[in-house]
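Researcher: Please generate the 3D structure of the following complex. Treat every line as part of one assembly.
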Amino acid sequence: MKHTVLFICLLLLTTAALAQERAITGSVRDAGGNPLVGASIVIKGTTRGSTTESDGSFKLAIPDRPSLTLITSIIGFTTEEITLSPTQTNVAIVLNEDNKALDEVVVVGYGTQKKINLTGAVASIDAKEIENRPITNVSQALQGRIPGLLVTQTGGQPGRENIGLQIRGISSLNNNDVLVIVDGVAMSMQNLNPNDVESISVLKDAASAAIYGARASGGVILVTTKKGKTGKARITYDGYVGTQSPTRMPNMVNAYQHALLYREGELNDNPSNTALTYSLADIEKYRTGELPSADRLSFLFRPAAQTQHNIAISGGNETSNYYVSVGYLKQGGIMQNTGYERLNIRTNNNFKVGNRLDIGIMTQFAPSLQKAPSEATFPNGPTRTLNDYIFEAFRRGSVYPILNPDGQWSSVTGWANRFGLESEDGGFARERLNRLTGALTVNYRILDGLSLTGMYSGKFDQTRRVDYSKRMKFVSPVDFKTVDFDYNTNSLLTANQTDYYHTLQLLLNYNKTLGDHTVKLLGGFSREWNQNFAETVGRRNFLTDEIYVVDAGSADTQTWTARGTASEWAIQSFFGRANYEYKGKYLLEGIVRYDGSSRFAAPVRWGIFPSVSGGWRISDEPFLKSNRVVNNLKLRASWGQVGNQNVALYQFASTVSTGAYYFNGLPNTTAFYSGNPNPDLTWETKRTVNLGLDAGFWSNKLTVTLDLFQDRTRGILLQPPVPDTYGRGRVFQNVGIVDNKGWEVDVRHQNQIGGLRYGVGVLLSNARETVVDVGGLGTRISGNNITEVGYGVNEWFGWEAAGLFQTAEEVKASSFQNIRTGPGDIRFVENGGNPKTITADDRVHLGRQNSMFPYGVNVNLAWKGFDLSAFGQGVGYRQTYLSSLAGNAFQDNLASALDIHLDRWTPETPNAYFPKTRIGGINKAFSSFHLQNAAYFRLKNIQVGYTIPSQLTERLKISRLRVYFSGENLVTFTKLLAFDPEAPNGSGNFYPLSKVTTFGINLSL
Amino acid sequence: MALILLICSAAACKNDFLETLPLTAPSDKLFWKTDQDAITWINSAYQDLPGADDYVFNAMSDDAYTVTTANAVIANGTYEPTSSIVASKWGYSTIRQCLELLSRVDGIPNIDPVLSKRLKGEAQFIIAMRYLEMTMLYRDVPLVDKVLSLPEADIPKSDKAIVLKYALDQLEQAIPNLPARYPSAADNGRITKGAALALKARMLLYNNQWAEASVAAKAVMDLNVYQLHSTFNEVFQSNFNNQTKEVILARQYAKDLAVHTIQFSYGFYQIGGSGLSLPLPDLINSYESKDGLPITQSPLYDPLKPFDNRDPRFMQTFITPFETFAGVKYDPVNNKDAKTQAKTYLYYRKYIADVANQQRSSWVNWIIFRYADVLLMYAEAKNEASGPDETVYNTLDQIRTRAGMPKVDRSRYATQETLRGLIRNERRVEMAGEGLRYYDILRWKIADKVLNKTVVSVAIPGVLPLQNIETRVFKPAKNYVWPIPQTAIDNATKLVQHPEWK
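Model: Done. Output below.
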């Protein structure tokens, strides 16, 4: 509110600043004398200005002041400032073409590269595209921003967002996760302050990623943090306050509808049933409100606040630069008893020592605290994971009260009420992650063009989780007196985990230009190792629920918990890169990397990953050099090979684990094989061919990037199903071949019409994989999924539904399905096997499971001090199966229904969407009926800002002050019923995503 | 500079940088070295013995009804190869665990030969147990008789007779090597000679090899280790875990540490139960009046007070309406929540009689074999093999006397046919709620009669109105065998579905 008042005051000030005036005319032309149309002329320090006409001329009324500066700008040309003399009435302005695009530099593996010289498929975004969005995890900033990168967020729990990154679709039958490198060190984007990010590069093809060899099969994301720039100290403050609320939530049926539908289902299952759960009298009581209806979703989920504050100080001179920032994020949870807080402190400093030595020091301390409900379970209590709590909200019907009228927690079917356990009355889990990262870089220039760089960096994660579960009583919702369930065991579990990750790197760089020939060479060595230790201790039966230290618990050692684990891994690599450039037109690059991983046994430990790529800058050829339309045109081609080592540790070793069986009431140790070893396991490799085109038109007013790729992955690290008769679990093997091909388009247009600058960008991509060889025993059916040669990975597999049966005759005339099948039930299509019965043989492919056609659209406008940006994102194809919640009403006898299930078959409503209501039962069997179109388009972010004119703010020594309003996830278009379209496949019980509306300011001193 | 040197030296040094070994679990290279290794190994296989989860078998038969839709499918005939319950008794991991022991145990240096034989006997028992359960339900199943490598593991089904012959052969080998008693109480719960003989009797009985079955059952009786416990109801209470001479083998549980939720399954709403097995009138009516006559003939039976004057086991097996159990009045008429769940109005009391304050966690052992079962098996097998004789009547008398019922009326049950009826009824009454009835109606081939009907509640005119519950369908051409679980077929290439289910 305070902010809004300030905003209005400043607006009023601008209009008050007008006084005496005079007129001025002028023209704007390029260096060749051609008129520039639509150039903007603004009086410095104000928002007043004019625009050039078709002949390049303009008119402008200016205040009668002794000194006054005009700022002239147009896209594709450098901006000019011209100071007018006191009497001047006419001005001729000449603008030079802007060559900045030529100097744009992109971060690539172990170095940087001029964007125009890239030969691989590399996309990047800079800080501007991220800033001021209320994102909590940097990965969220990438959604819809990079063609070929699919970002899926399948959970909204503060501090644990479940973000999936996938570059160029599925190329493996295994996971080949994206490798994320932050400032040269492999780590997740967790606990990284979005405000600290300078740029993000995405290496998509094998040629650009091969320098990261062994772990690059899923592509590489390089995050670079901000550094100080030469110049005076800059102090910035960025902050926002906002509210979150769930995006798209289903509606449960109310108690009356629940009872009515349940009765209908019971009668559908057994028409003669008289032992019905809800009598007509009870149903009437629900209708009139005499019996309560509990709105479970509104109870568990509610709006929550979110704020962030960030202060950064940066600057530098010839010998040093610095960047220091402090960020604080506080995110309330839209689910009760959850939340997140994080502090980020970062310093990035660089010094020159003499002429030859550079030293860089980066440190980050990022402590965070995640609040969540207790997850402690006891033999006589329900399971209590976060998903259990959410599932409870959707699954149990409104007929189960939550709180009794006197405020006590109601029992549910005489047992515990998970909502009570979820609440603060039930306990809490507090997880603190203290992340400390640091890097020391020493760069020594041995000769001109030859330098040696050494880097050590470490990441230390210390996690401490305290889970305390309190004693609770659950009271009968009937008499409000009887304690139906006494959850009489309280408990504490304290878990400490330490993770040490070290990287050592040594790089030798050599650059040389001889006439038209430029050569760049890189040789490197790196070594990474990781150690992880975790211990959990706990006790039960504390005297009070106010002390959260293990020693305060019961001395009965039988109830103690003491566990500990440890693991370690290491990677060692040698790599090299050579770049050759002739006349800046012909580009050639070769990379080789040699990796050894501790995950594989010694004889098969090492893998070699080469790549070559080339580029041709056609626009630098004489026949295009002076073309006025095409200002940039480059063809790229690459071939390369990368690896994947994504298997659990120690797959080469057979291990024995222990448990307990109780003889005569006392524990006896049990032993069994825990690992399913394969000592021959080695690298999975992916070969990629990429063709690309970069083009710029009309001084880069229009830019187009196109990429085509095709890859083949072999020796896939996979656990194919084993026959049950094997009697042991699945074994990791190098089996199977998957082909993957696709394309990416990125089109951007930016322009200026008078004072209005605007930009539009559209990006679209697709990737489609085909299984060439499955490995193992062949076609792999896993529940509702199938992987078969000639199809995609894990396609949907099940019965093909053909509407609903309408009459008993139809049922009789069709293949036998089930003894209960009747009118209103789903009809399956006969597809082979026994022609008279629907059996497993009738299951068929029902379509791809993997999403396709991710796209993004962004628009930004700037006019005078106002700016507006809107960014939308979606996927063009997704079929999902939300099994237990959205699929059918009453998945089982304890479940409830959503309001969408009211649209069900009855003799009176034969054209309804859902089949006849049943309790559990036959319509639950997975079929094409249950697949839903979850393609969507989402207005991901919209932001409206206003920058206060500097002539007003400079009086306050403020160089820039911008206020803005931002909305995240405000509008979503999808055909998916009830749930958010980003919901993961499965039961729909995930932590909902949030709509976030914020008000913020950006301030620079 | 020093840093660069450090890196250089690191690069040059040891080659074992990439050599990491599991830090938490020992490698199997260190295992199979001591006697204790082999003991811990077989301990693991005990976890797959039938346990309290087997309560679900009650409601597959005409004994009970369940509200759990996923489990009700067997009795109502709607199950499919994809039904979760169909996969519940399928699996080879325990068989492999046991076969590993058989192939490894003699390689342990200096192993005590007596111990080695005993451990092999335990393993062979568990293999036989698994195959008995699987052949009873799935009929023909793949026979895994050695540790298979992955390429060898894709095998087709074998005929039930071949699988059973293998299982019986394993038992024969085990019996002489297992002790009749373990010297230390700490081993209470381990497989004994008596358990192996009882399993042999069950295996033969279930496959109509009457004479052999009666011999095996007699062998258990002749061990003189077991006897009926003095009171029927104490056998099923946690205080008597491993304390009676009646129990031959039980799945072991322990307070707070290894518990199950039988009270949740059997109990009524107010004691935290969910009525997952509700006794049906068919079972209720099979209890004689205390005069030893069926209720259809006994003058003591009053349809208005149907729970009075019955076999004492009636009140020890069921919770009846309006009685106070564990301090709570069970009222299915006036208490709305109790009414909703109590479709048949009765609940099982057996196994939960002493759980008043245990809420949802119980640690009463689940009995796999008890002496009463052996006596009943003997009576049935002997009667089928050679008709009524005094040994048959005597075993039945022992059971009835312990229960507080009159001895068998010799004249009333003088023929093989009439005695068969009594034995089957006695078995149903004595073993109610122990998960055995479903196997009995399959092997007696009466399932198509007893499962083809609409199940209803108990009724007392004017007090408990009759409720129709569910229509059950049993197709004899199909439902006498369970389908092979679809996942098992999907995971293999040589395993094919039974013709009935194709």
